[in-house]
Amino acid sequence: MRTQIVAGNWKMNCNLDESQHLLNALKQKDFSKADVEVVVAPPYTNLYAAHQSLKDSSIKISSQNINENEKGAFTGEVSPDMLKSVGVEYVIIGHSERRAIYAESDELLAKKVTAALKHDLKIMFCIGEVLEQRKADKHFEVVKEQLEKGLFHIGASDMKNVVIAYEPVWAIGTGETASPEQAQEIHEHIRKVLADKYNADVAEQTSILYGGSVKPNNAKEIFAKKDVDGGLIGGASLDADSFAEIVMSF
Ligand code: PGA
Question: Where in 118-240 does DSSP place strands (E)?
């Protein structure tokens, strides 16, 4: 049985007060009825306080990024060990905003993956095509290549610490979502790519999340698809009620 996960990617939103406020609101929610692991990814500056505040909660903490080096002269960067030391359990690697705005290449992402695993951090590895690639019917190829270049240097045993997030770039923050059928079709493809690279067990056990304008009104339909194991939620994760409703869609 795969772990079902709903993760909130707060992006560059919430100062410390706002972050604590949102976490307090989330802690009031009873997620125990949903068979789901709930994860939040606040900005770096709020991670330690989030860890403190979530100590008695089952909600897990993710960072939104990681540096691939151990330590040293990398001004402005945050190392795997630093993340670990403030209670981070997951790291998001390869979000399309990092790929597009900060020009993070597949080669760099591969190094981040290695660094995260070395420090026992779990990974949410993001892949997804842009609109032109979808229109040209290249999305199957694109996600395969992103997996091959950014993730497939790791061995099958490390895959138990990896979650894949399929996020079509044209659906992120746009209000447009992939239809449940489109999501299912590409998730099934991703699982097949995993089976071909590793084995059927890895493919069967790896959680594949969908991301891109998931809201309370569409989560249920998308999560109902057999190869969709949860969601990576941006905008709707900034509102405790919306996020909770999405979690409870399972
Ligand atoms: P969105 O963002 O839900 O606001 O579309 C998803 C993401 O970027 O992870």
Answer: 122-127, 162-166, 208-211, 230-233
